[in-house]
User: Which sequence fits this backbone?
């Protein structure tokens, strides 16, 4: 895994470079963030000619390590104005890694409007104009690309939202069934790819085997031990496979942090109707899948496949975050409505979190009623129609709020909060405020931290530790849910990296490695014009109580600054 | 002039305070910016409960000094995210000053939606709910308020755009004819006032005479000398009275800095059709006024009154900036169309610059054709209808560009550039980049600086000097056009202030006074999260030539930072 593929969209040229030595031990988010810092002018227009999109598998990508196939995508974000890394599962990262590709760097933009598709394989790199895919949804686009390039390829793909520069647009890639369902959803990276005139990257890893470790016995032993931990930890062995992430609905509601009514509260009366248990029964009753792997070799299989009433494929996966933002946040208690909105968002290529947040804002503005699922579906369809209001919603929650005159916006650095209400789980609020990524639960979730989530004690340490921990997972390309099984056995992660690369990192070394990622990201953000003034929650969370918990967000500015500095 | 009127919209209470001594010699922009810095949390939500709106006459307000009746309004801007001062002519400032009111400070927001009207006079301060004025245009609102409070009152007023939190919304006040035509237009201050539930402030200065100076003979002599200069300087004695600001159309076009086609060029083929000469003839042919004072005692009278084809009042005034933004920038060559759009913008209460900029963006996006005046009028009417696209346009150019997927946006710090293309007049570009106000010609115009406007030499000094000079005019409440007459006789300004207040400031002292304003504004902006990364022009101005001048904006980042530091 030692090449960079550089795609120059201005000159419609693909170059293969040997990755400089300095990048040898960087992968996933560590690599995308470093390359963005090194190559992208921090003050550039995120949708202009100077931004670059970086796509990278994690350090463990392309190996037999379970759940190591996360794909990282980075750029300057048109949503936050700062650096962004968004990662997702699927099949593309493993294929890139097996092709020896450390990163794909996309730069420039073509002078015509035809979207292009890049094909990479062991023997061939090709850039082809595909005007017939212009503004075609991801489901149909993926199907046509599979017909053209074969059913076993990986495809990194944007929908019409990205082509239209909507800043809620994400980048998807295929799951193990060939469905374009695994989104690097956040930060508007789909709009960056769209602004570069790139519709898809097709990855064909035929004739490529698994990557082989430098120290095989140690590697095999570590993989085996990790697999054993995953198989014996209740969270990864039982709860995730059965309920997926939606097991969190009831827990969050009980804790008072299930976002409800545009984050006015943390408790939703109808939470049971959208719970993991209810979703499980619905899926089973229609013959869908409750236990489903998004990437090859996943032992957890937290994904699911939801069928509609007639037994047809509705959406895969339906996850907690979407249920929280599109469901409780909009007081929508129908899983079918939530699933339908999820399917539409996926097809257009927009983040369900920004979209759910924007719907909640529109409801608060009175454009439609809280709880009106059919109106919400119609509103989401406007994104696909690119009507004026659809173009507004497609820009995400913050812009929607400005247009509709709503001043209570649950967002940080321009990015909508995910499905943890930050007065009900204060550590998560600390992460929202201080992560270089904007409001993002994957940047350092504290839900499993040993703290009283309603109390202010211990939250800044919990967030800081979680952010450092997540940097490791994001660099390795490991799914964060493996973390439930790994727990304190971070030595196992070190062992995997060490035996694969023939190095000797300590656990502390891994932490420092993660700190370097955060430092690089913060350096970029500072140069891009973000300051400590942006490391704050919206003021209403600090002033008005969450009625479910009777708490406000009372972590001080000084404490938030401590997190950034430590 | 020693009282603060503090309007608490949360508790619906008006308090009269003696202004603290520290504010005694602050007026206009010096006072609004200082009060914003001292009283407003820089990180606050500009449309939330913590922002404050500060309204102040200049230091010379309420006296017989010609053209000294500018009204300053300041707050944290919902458009730029930084501090804002916007000033305009009209009658309100003089009345406030004669009432002894140094500043009105509006804070909080009511719990109901009824807009309120404040009445202030020598004997009475009153806050009354006026639900009947909700979402009523400024022309009709002013008429009803005049019917209620008398024809001689001053009225500070917002339109429906401000009530709807549109960030292109300004604050207007009456001219000498009682027409609500003098806008403090920029930075979305109308949305701040709207978010506070305040529709209008009615100012009745009955029984109040002119303010009297401490040293009368010196004051009278200085006033006399200033009047003489105004009457004998060609610019203020002949050109402004005859053509108003629109004399600039031909000059700017010749220089290659007349914004054309969303600032793609600085030369408009049909510039003659929208020139000051053409406007003069049109006004005269219909029996309008080419020479019109916006405030009592103005000797320049650059304003005008434009009648429609039937001889009815169309709009007053029609100025260069509007002609540049709505006209050439949109390739609209009909003065009647431009005037009609101006009238609509005034009635809704939105800045014509943001609106013209947004129309140009919409034209570039293909929503309507460049030059299609009738379509442009229909689009502006959507602001009044508050349709989805109208709500987008009402948020100004930058947001419109994001929604419509346009990446070339002529704006700085979120604010649309006025009618000077910055590659064709580089000093103005320096001011756009470095002013704490965002892109703003009134923050330090360099059109009369002794430099080659196409060359990079001398531009940073010209901008820095102009910014320091403007601070003085903005603090004194003097119209910037007096500057053409004053020229290097800044000692005359010192003499006016000194004799009025009984002090002894030097010319250098005045410059240092102005520097303190800029420093206060920059301090606020830094705390609000603006950095040197925001003191830049959009990258396309630095990369692509203005075809009219074959120049790019080539002032370096270091040079821009020098302006901020000096």
Assistant:
């Amino acid at each position: 895994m030692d090449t960079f593929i550089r795609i120059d969209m201005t000159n419609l040229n693909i170059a293969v470079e040997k990755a400089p030595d300095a990048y040898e031990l960087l992968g996933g988010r560590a690599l995308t963030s470093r390359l963005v810092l090194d190559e992208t002018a921090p003050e550039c227009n995120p949708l202009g000619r100077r931004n670059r999109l970086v796509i990278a598998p994690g350090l463990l990508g392309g190996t037999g390590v379970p759940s190591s196939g996360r794909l990282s995508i980075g750029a300057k974000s048109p949503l936050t104005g700062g650096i962004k890394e968004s990662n997702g599962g699927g099949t593309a990262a493993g294929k890139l890694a097996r092709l020896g590709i450390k990163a794909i760097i996309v730069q420039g933009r073509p002078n015509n409007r035809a979207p292009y598709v890049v094909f990479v394989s062991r023997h061939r790199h090709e850039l082809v104009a595909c005007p017939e895919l212009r503004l075609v949804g991801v489901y149909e686009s993926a199907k046509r690309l599979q017909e053209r390039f074969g059913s076993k390829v990986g495809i990194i793909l944007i929908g019409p939202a990205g082509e239209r520069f909507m800043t809620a647009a994400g980048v998807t890639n295929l799951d193990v069934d060939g469905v374009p369902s695994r989104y690097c959803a956040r930060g508007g990276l789909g709009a960056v790819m769209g602004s570069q005139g790139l519709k898809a990257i097709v990855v064909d890893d035929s004739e490529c085997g698994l990557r082989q470790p430098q120290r095989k016995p140690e590697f095999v032993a570590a993989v085996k031990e990790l697999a054993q931990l995953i198989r014996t930890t209740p969270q990864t062995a039982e709860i995730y496979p059965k309920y997926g992430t939606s097991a969190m609905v009831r827990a969050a509601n009980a804790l008072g942090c299930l976002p409800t009514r545009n984050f006015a509260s943390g408790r939703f009366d109808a939470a049971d109707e959208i719970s993991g248990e209810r979703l499980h029964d619905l899926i089973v009753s229609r013959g869908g899948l409750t236990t489903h792997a998004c990437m090859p070799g996943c032992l957890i299989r937290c994904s699911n496949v939801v069928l509609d009433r007639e037994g047809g494929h509705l959406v895969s996966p339906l996850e907690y975050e979407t249920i929280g933002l599109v469901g409780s946040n909009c007081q929508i208690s129908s899983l079918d409505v939530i699933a339908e909105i999820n399917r539409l968002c996926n097809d257009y290529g927009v983040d369900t979190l920004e979209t759910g947040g924007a719907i909640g804002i529109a409801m608060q503005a009175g454009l439609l009623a809280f709880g009106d699922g059919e109106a919400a579906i119609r509103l989401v369809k406007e994104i696909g129609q690119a009507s004026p209001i659809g173009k507004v919603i497609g820009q995400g929650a913050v812009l929607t709020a400005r247009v509709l005159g709503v001043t209570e916006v649950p967002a940080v650095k321009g990015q909508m909060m995910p499905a943890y209400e930050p007065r009900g789980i204060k550590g998560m609020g600390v992460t929202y405020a201080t992560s270089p990524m904007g409001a993002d639960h994957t940047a350092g979730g504290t839900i499993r931290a040993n703290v009283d989530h309603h109390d202010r004690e211990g939250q800044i340490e919990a967030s800081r530790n979680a952010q450092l921990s997540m940097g490791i997972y994001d660099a390795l390309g490991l799914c964060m849910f493996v973390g439930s099984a790994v727990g304190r056995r971070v030595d196992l992660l070190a062992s995997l990296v060490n035996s694969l690369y023939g190095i000797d990192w300590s656990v502390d070394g891994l932490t420092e490695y993660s700190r370097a990622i955060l430092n690089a990201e913060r350096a970029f953000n500072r140069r891009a014009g973000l300051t400590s003034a942006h490391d704050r929650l919206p003021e209403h969370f600090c002033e008005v109580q969450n009625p479910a918990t009777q708490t406000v967000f009372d972590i001080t500015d000084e404490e938030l600054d401590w997190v950034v500095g430590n």
User: Anything to note?
Assistant: Chain B touches chain A at residues 42-45, 47-50, 164-167, 195, 387-389, 391-392, 395, 399, 402-405, 407, 526-534, 536, 538-540, 543 (CB under 8 Å). Residues 3-203 of chain B form a domain with the Aldehyde Ferredoxin Oxidoreductase;  A, domain 1 fold (CATH 3.60.9.10).
